[in-house]
Amino acid sequence: MAKKGVPLSEMATSDTHGEDSPYFVGWKVYDENPYDAASNPSGVIQMGLAENQVSFDLLEDYLEQHPQEFGWGCGVSSFRENALFQDYHGLKTFTRAVALFMEQIRGGRTQFDPQHIVLTAGATAANELLTFILADPGDGLLIPTPYYPGFDRDLRWRTGVNIIPVHCNSSNGFQITLRALEDACAGAESMKVRVKGLLLTNPSNPLGTTITRPVLEEILDFVAHKDIHLISDEIYSGSVFSSDEFVSMTEIVESRGHQERERVHIVYSLSKDLGLPGYRVGTIYSYNNEVVTTARRMSSFTLVSSQTQKMLASLLSDKEFTENYLRTNRERLKKRYEFVVEGLSNAGIRCLQGNAGLFCWMNLGELLEEPTVEGELSLWNLMLHEAKLNISPGSSCHCLEAGWFRVCFANMSQQTLEVALMRMKDFTEKMKAKQMISSL
Amino acid sequence: MRVIVPLQAVVQGRGGLVLGSLIPCALFYFLQFYLRRNRPSSSSPPPPSSASGSNLPELASIPRSLSRGLLSPRGSFGPARLSSRGTAVVRDDDNPYYVGLKRCADDPYNRSINPQGFLLLGLAENRLSLDIIQDWLVKNWKESLLLDDEEEELSIQGLATYQPYDGSMDLKTAVAEFMGQVMQGSVSFNPSHVVLTAGATPAVETLGFCLADPGDAFLVPSPYYPGWDRDIKWRTGVELIPVPCRSTDNFSISIAALELAYNQVKKRGMKVRAVLVSNPSNPVGSLIDRETLCGLLDFVMEKNIHLISDEIFAGSTYGSDKFVSVAEVLDAESFDKSRVHIIYGLSKDLAVPGFRVGVIYSYNENVLAAASKLARFSSISAPTQRLLISMLSDRKFISEYLAVNRARLHDMHALFVDGLKQLGIKCASSSGGFYCWADMSMFIRPYSEKGELKLWDNLLNVAKVNVTPGSSCHCIEPGWFRCCFTTLTEKDVPTVMERIQKITKSN
Description:
The complex is a heterodimer of chains A (440) and B (507).
Chain A: H1 10-13, H2 22-32, E1 45-46, H3 56-65, H4 67-72, H5 79-84, H6 92-105, E2 117-120, H7 123-134, E3 140-144, H8 150-154, E4 162-166, H9 178-190, E5 195-201, H10 213-226, E6 229-233, H11 249-255, E7 264-269, E8 282-286, H12 289-298, H13 306-317, H14 319-346, E9 350-351, E10 359-363, H15 373-385, E11 389-390, E12 392-393, E13 404-408, H16 414-438
Parallel strand pairs in A: 1-11, 3-4, 3-5, 5-6, 6-7
Antiparallel strand pairs in A: 2-8, 7-8, 9-10, 10-13, 12-13
Helix pairs in contact in A: 6-13, 7-12, 14-16
Chain B: H1 8-11, H2 22-37, H3 65-69, H4 84-91, H5 96-105, E1 119-120, H6 130-146, H7 169-182, E2 194-197, H8 200-211, E3 217-222, H9 228-231, H10 233-236, E4 239-244, H11 255-267, E5 272-278, H12 290-303, E6 306-310, H13 326-332, E7 340-345, E8 358-362, H14 365-374, H15 382-393, H16 395-422, E9 426-427, E10 435-439, H17 449-461, E11 465-466, E12 468-469, E13 480-484, H18 492-506
Helix pairs in contact in B: 6-15, 7-15, 8-14
């Protein structure tokens, strides 16, 4: 077997896919030994996956009441044209439904024009598509830290675009400051990297917090001043614990009479709020016609199944269902969050004050042997292999302060969560005891 | 091929099931027409009529003040410009292949409802056998989509959560078996060599990313499928170098021509990384014979490059020649498999392009590893996966479907080619695909690309027949046109011929 085979591309052989990072390594360890209350009670509990299963029963109820619509989509008799439908404008009923849903999430405070919606197979594809469209290879995208580890791969791998971190820290709850933005820009300039845009995640992953209105205003001013684009990934917008605590970038744009709208683009998806990541439904919403046209053409590489569009159109258009779903989902997430924070607090662990998302941002700085990335990773490793908990280390999220970790709480049952919190408590007590002994 | 599905697809059905929706659909269609005529203009192309046939109220373009206010007069000269990649895409407007499709989208032919509409001979979509699939679905949809294995209850358990990005193993297995059936048992496919993607479009682009670096080249025997110019070149930075084939030998692939092209490209300082072929050929419809496949394999081995064989029409053959997959040749002979990759999908043979199911079949572990990671950007929707697993596992149904579909393709092809013959138009010899490759060179003036495009334009705008001109396919001989016949019924053929004759007579 000739070792030196036919050559592949740089891309195929590089590791920009980032799947060797702890974020993904932890997943693998989990996959090999997954926790199950009955069959594998000593397995690894997955707290590194931001998936929402708390409101799944609501979807199942809907299915029971509307098997035709949700199951197939208003009758099989229209199968023919559905099966042939590959127009990348998307099914009209579906894009309208998505627009309505996004409006509902924002309490009707902004309007979404379905003609400006571009569908993609997931938000992963949406973010990558925007990056291709707004930046050339070698250009830079500003991203506040800590950020979702997947961005390193999704935004850079095929696009050749660089990520310029905008460093935030705990002194102000990791809020984005003008200073941090300016510093990042200056850094890019010194490396001769042209900055083309700023990508925000609001609510933030991994922080679990919403960005406040004044900060959003400041950010819009900043991007206008620098003449760059602004991508607001609002994938968790329906998972804010209290609906009036979320301000969308669209609201800021509208409040300014649509000034600067040409540079603002929203990313959304049904994977988090609706708990349907397997369906692969993402969207780009842009006020910029050229971006919409280009994104639509490029969406040929990542279209949403026509069958899926059909199935979800009726669900998302059902106002009664969506209102109830959004409200119930928020309540349950809030409850979960409070339960987790209390549990962690009993274990002597502090969390950042959060108000959204499927996770909390906790601080284990006290347990680190040394306040460095190495210290953090060694603690993470211990937690993975001893406590059998897979959580995400802050360094994977490019957090400059060692000791922060993201803990997901919505992808498991209440019982599993209780087991996880107990393990966390045992682990921290053991670690603290160890520390005390070694300091004697 | 990006085009809306006109509502008449429902009407053209063979099953009695669809007649029940004829009247409401017709009314619905007229309503759409009326509303569109009265809609304020917007800068983006009008959304096509969504033929979902659903009973949700179709709020066709309520003029919201927002969309009016979003007309941007200055485009990319305004603030925050697009990247150069983005700009290239937004300007990529002129290819007749796409122009034709867009033109037809709003006014498609329907024998009863819109007999003056555009005839969609530029769209390689198979509507001949969808009734068979529909019948299966009517009987099986509940079980196939929603039944929980254990519970016997309707459930979406297992559909909602994250799935492997390159497709579930169950679907890979079902697709691998389907491919074996499609190729009539001559070769069997291993599911662990399969990466699934949302359509063949991302499949071929993914191979572009994996096998070549920006600035490298693929050799592509021409004429070739116009979509590749976008699918492969847009984002990967890979160049496609057409290697012209000639009508004198029915546009067969010539290894000598490949050799010549290879050396020419090398002289230009570019690196050739692969040869890309389609088999059955799009747009010619011919099959690559075993000898040529061996020749190709020898060639790529000698140059140490890859071979990509797009076999998406493998199940849509109808001639007397038997289809031979490159996989079959690899099994039989001792060629280096690690450089061979097959593109496949369900859009053609199973006629479900809307569901977005494409396949990369590779013997190269490293390519599979990279492609499966890249699949995260174009994964297949879970409920669609489940539905197809169920459908494809009904092997009896599938084999009946494939047989009937082939027979219908055969008949329609014969009818169509004969019709063209009556007009004095000869077609290349073809055994597969949804189209014929017609020689209309005697009707073009001058004998050049310009003359060809003049004829294309007349056919489109005067006769309202959309065909694909050979120049869009990089055909070196002017006057050839790809004419798809699978969106037609038998009764439509005389209409098609009449309209074509209108133009050819005046030439």
